[in-house]
Each structure stands twice: as structure tokens, then as C-alpha cells.
Amino acid sequence: MRIKEIIDARNLMSKQANEARLSWCKKYLSANARQNYTEKYISEKLSAELAEISETEHSANVKFNKELVAETESLLEAAKRKIVPAFERPDDYAMQIANALTMLKMLPLSEDNIELIFSPFKADYEQMRVFDHIVSTFDSHACEIEHRQPYDYEKTFAETRERAEKLAYYDELRGIAERLFLYPKTERDVIRAGADVYVKEYTDGYDEITGQARMLELAESEVL
């Protein structure tokens, strides 16, 4: 899947950036360089090279992030087309919805009554999600009054909930992608070069590592 390709390419880029830093360090901090250049010159040149590497790495991370977001958006839209059937609302649809809500207020809450009221709308995924939330709110209030456990209304909303659960994986994938590659890196000084320059090693932090792992887990799951 393209998600893994993007993550692998980005991680290779990060590795190469650290290798480039080390390469410049070896060049300017070698015994030969210290014999031929002043500490100030070495410090200035190394600072400039390391800054350029960091800027290039940041730009690459932004680019990879945009690619990843675009890929997850494409997957989400494709999933919606596959999971959620197209539905064309009739001209009197608002009236149908209003009538259904009026019936909801009039009839006692039960599996059969909820099925009777909302079964005509099952082809409309988005509206059924709204109805599911409304019924849940009504039922919660009834539970307090009647001192009973909530009904699940699976007969009416099972298919809607199943679709929502599948789409939730794609939503999570999209949410992870928004921040991946942009988290601050963990840094530590590895070499001191002159009075003001410290060569740093940059590694991915916890959020980046766990985000990548979760994204790859989702991408490789049977759900997607």
C-alpha cells in the first residue's frame, strides 16, 4: 500500500539527513581540518551546513506529510463511496423527517416502534446516524424515568452502526496523517564543534513512532 511506501521513504530521508550531519562533522572536525582552519571558520562552516540540512529535512517532512494526508483522504473518500450508498432525497423529505420525529414523541419507546418509525430511512446513512443519536437521547431520558436498562435498537440501526464503525478506521487514519512527520524530534548533543556549535543527533519521538506504528497497523488490517 502507498501509505507504507510514504512512511518508508520519509524514514529513509531522516536517516540520510543524520548521515549527512555526521559526514560534515567528520570533514570539519578531522585532525587535518583543525590543522588548516581556525576554530571560528570551522564553527561557521559547520553551522551553515547543519542548518541547511535541517531546513532541507523540514521541507521534506512537510512534503511527505502532504502526500500522506492526500493518500488518506483519497482512501476515506473511496471508502465512503463503497460503504455508504448514494441516496437522493425526495422533495418532501423534510416533511417525512418531521413526521417521523413527531411519531417518536408520541409512541412508547420499543424495538418494534423504532423500526416502524425509521425503517423507511435506512437507505440514507447520514440521516440514520442522526436518528440513532436522537433515539439514544430519548432512550437515556426514558431509562431515568422508568428505571430500566437502555434498549439497543439493533434491529433498526445495526447496519448504520456497522458502516460508521468501518468509516471510523479511515477517520482515524486521516487524523493520524495530519500530524505525522511534523512532531518535534528528540535531539541530543553528540559532538561539540567550537565554542558555540553542538552537532546534534535527531530521532523521532514517542508520538511519531506510535503514530507510524498505528497507521501501518490500520493500513495492513482487513478493515481497510
Question: How is this structure best described in words?
Answer:
This protein has 224 residues and is mainly alpha-helical. It is built from 8 helices and 2 strands, in the order αααααααββα. The chain has helices at residues 2-28, 31-36, 39-83, 93-106, 111-118, 125-146, 154-179, 206-220, and strands at residues 186-193, 197-203. A two-stranded antiparallel sheet has the order 1-2. The protein is elongated and about 90 Å long.
List its traits.
mainly alpha; 8 helices
Helix content percent band: over 70%
Q: Helix/strand-derived class? A: mainly alpha
In N-to-C order, the SSE pattern is: HHHHHHHEEH
Rounded Rg: 29 Å
Provide the low-confidence segments as ranges.
none
Strand content: 5-15%
Mean pLDDT reading = 90
Oligomer: single chain
Query: Helix segment count?
Result: 8
Separation of the first and last Cα atoms: 10 Å
Dominant shape? elongated
Strand tally: 2
Biggest sheet descriptor:
2 strands, antiparallel
The largest sheet has its strands arranged as 1-2
